[in-house]
């Protein structure tokens, strides 16, 4: 039988301590802001002004669950030595961290296409940037509505 101390049994104390440890260990689910996403993009692409076009972002408009949404990014490029995509960056404005992923390509990559799954914490804008060999940057963006967040939110 559990011994009572000031109205609490040993079992009550252990349960409360366990809940406290879990609460302290749980990560804070802060969300990135559009400004944080903009700051990251500046670091990734430098001073280039992105233009819309050349980049196609394929993602659903509505995701029932943000746990593992399929995303594809393709860039219109001949992928030749003189004209190719050097990097593709994907940024999300509302996830815990705005940087989703970056890929670095060469003409030997053959195609400027990537496909992956990503977690989405909430409804947000997803952006894709393509850095070209001539220094230009192209982009596409799309809002995806998330009904159940996949990042713990």
From TrEMBL:
InterPro entries: SoxY (IPR032711), SoxY_sf (IPR038162), Sulphur_oxidation_SoxY (IPR016568), TAT_signal (IPR006311), TAT_signal_bac_arc (IPR019546). Pfam families: SoxY. Gene3D superfamilies: SoxY domain. Residues 42-151 form the Ig-like SoxY domain. This is Ig-like SoxY domain-containing protein. It comes from Magnetospirillum moscoviense.
């Amino acid at each position: 039988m559990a011994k009572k101390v000031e109205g609490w049994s040993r079992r009550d104390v252990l349960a409360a301590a366990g809940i406290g440890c879990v609460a302290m260990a749980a990560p804070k689910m802060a969300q990135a802001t559009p400004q944080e996403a903009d700051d990251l993009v500046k670091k990734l692409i430098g001073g280039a002004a992105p233009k819309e076009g050349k980049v196609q972002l394929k993602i659903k408009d509505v995701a029932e669950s943000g746990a593992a949404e399929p995303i594809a990014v393709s860039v219109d490029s001949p992928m030749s030595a003189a004209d190719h995509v050097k990097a593709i960056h994907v940024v999300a404005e509302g996830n815990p961290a705005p940087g989703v992923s970056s890929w670095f390509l060469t003409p030997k990559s053959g195609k400027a296409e990537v496909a992956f799954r990503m977690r989405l914490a909430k409804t947000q804008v997803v952006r894709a940037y393509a850095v070209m060999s001539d220094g230009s940057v192209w982009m596409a963006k799309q809002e995806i509505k998330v009904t159940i967040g996949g990042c713990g939110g």
